[in-house]
Amino acid sequence: MKKNISPLSSIQETENSTQEPSSSPENPEKIARRYFRSLSLRYFTGTLFVLVLSLLWFPLITRIPFIRIETADAVFLYSSLPLYLIAMPFMIFLIQRIPAVSLPKHSMTFFQWIQAFFMCYSMMYLSNLAGLFCTWLIGLLKGSGVENSILTMIDGVSPLPAFFVTVLCAPVFEELIFRKLLIDRTVKYGEGISILFSALFFGLFHGNLNQFAYAFTLGAFFAFIYVKTGKILYTVFLHMVVNFLGSVAGILLSGLPVYKELSDFSGNIASLLPLFQSHTGEFLILGLYSLMIFTFFVTGIICLAVNARKMNLKAGETSLSKSALFRAALLNIGTILFSLSWIIQIILQLLL
Question: Whole-model pTM?
Answer without folding.
Answer: 0.86
